[in-house]
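During the reporting period the student researcher (J.K.) took over the structure-prediction task from the postdoctoral fellow and processed the backlog of single-chain submissions. One of the processed entries is reproduced below for the supervisory committee.
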Amino acid sequence: MKLPSLQTLWQGTNRVSTRFPLQFLIAIISTGLWWYLTDLNYKEQEQTRNLVTALAVCNLALTLLLSADLFCEVHHYSALKKWIVRIVVLAISIGFYFLLNPWAYLIDVYRIFLLAFAFHLLVAFAPFIGKSDLNGFWQYNKTLFLRFLTSAFYAAVLYAGLAIALLAIDGLFDVDITYKTYMKLFAVVSAGFTTIFFLAGVPENFKALAEEQSYPKGLKIFTQYVLIPLMTIYLGILLVYEVKIIFQWTLPKGLVSTLILGYAVFGILSLLLIYPIKDKEGNGWMRLFSKFFYLMMIPLIVLLLLAIGKRVFSYGVTESRYILIVLGIWLTAITTYFLISKKQNIKIIPISLCILALLATYGPQSAFSVSKYSQVSRLKMLMKSTNKKEIEERSGVVRYLVDRHGLTSLQSFTNADLETIETKINAKVKSKRVYDYEIKNQKIDTAFSLLKVKDARYEDDNEQVNFISKDKGVISVTGYDAVFSFNEYSDSTKVFDGTTFKLEQNPEKKRSGNNNRLTITVGRESSFNFNLKDMAIEAYNQYKTDKLPKVDYNNYEYPSEKMELIHQTKHYTIKLIVTNMNGYYNNDKKDFDWFNFQGFVLIKKN
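J.K. obtained the following structure tokens:
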């Protein structure tokens, strides 16, 4: 494979900036956004959220604009008409930025992926809307596919070469090159170079594509001797498994859905790759595969629908199950079409998938509306149930609905104004600059409280609690000569004033995971213990009587003076300051199943 010269790259860049000006601009903007993003720290959450969302919208805008431009080119739109279409598409893309909030609602993450999937598929057939040229359609997508692989290969080589160069400079000249430099380099190569290089290879002469008959030899070898044999092996495994469950008369495992979809995706990809040559002389293996693929899909589709039905009837519809249902129906329709149709129009594959992806994004038929309705209905049933297992399932459904759809999805279960409550929570946590998971946890805790639902994870045996020192880890070392930290992950040995101080948590029960005490051995003197269990029990009792202020989720503030212990030896005064302790409390045993501590040890010579 011949690497492009600098002149070729420059000419390609000029062509892209002229032919696809907005896409070129988006590539530059995306590179700049990613570059800036690498300089932000974890405290600048608001900016990070906005930049990541902007990058996702840039990806959507890039593919949607490319589809629009290619459609306009093929239909010979005037420059004015083309710019009107571009402005409309750009306005739609900007609207997505204000409409989508993936940090607050998980469903918007799904929406971004569905829209990206749909717009990428749109690129595959946009120039051929209203046209029946199947050979040109195949040649066009072949060119895009190979250009994508070439772009990825060149980008990988370019990044690896420059990264090694930076590493050499760092090592030879003692230049402090941080990981952020490598991230910025990756941004330039992936968002800038790869995008522009790919766009430079997008076909322009669609009439020539209709007449082209070339077929890459490497693609034929890969498909015929690698991809199709692998598909045949997977088909055999799945068919044997189906025979097994028929004889055992059991329902299929959930994993089989993923395997069948994987087989279907790569099988259809194989058929698309061999489409122009499958009926030519000497390609009997390809012809046999294309003839029996859809026939063999029939028992697999039945197996797929059984696996999906098993989960849906037990736990209702969720976004992922909705997508599985839609793909199952789509596979059924596509299989039926290619078995009975003589036309064998391969354009129907990306067109139908694109339409389904868009329908799943917004509207009453979307994955999110259907899933919300299904889980709300399921929760209503669970709230009426007296069955212990179903009562335990309530918290999982509440958590799902709040996480995906927000507090307002539970409005039918309470008279409280959940929209106002959710708005106040969002405003409160935003002003405090807390993390996104804390926002969600506060909403989930509110939902549990309003619906009087207990979290099943802690309801029966274990309850997780975390106690934080009121001083937030800030300690006074006045009057002491040395200080060192300890935690639950490892024991430690420190030397001070020529004396060895060995710290061990619960030495005779290290593997139990329950650190009842901290044992300290001072030089050759006998060891002594700090009883940490009593401290934890006392903190838990205070927590149960609602006397401790809640920091967030299951974190509670505990008085600093109650997290301190002192012991005197002949030569030293040793003070233990615990800054954090957490564990699982077993309500049946009235004791901690396990707990851990971390903090500091202060030493003073007597």
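The committee noted the following: The CA atoms of residues 535 and 563 lie 7 Å apart.
J.K. will present the remaining backlog at the next meeting.
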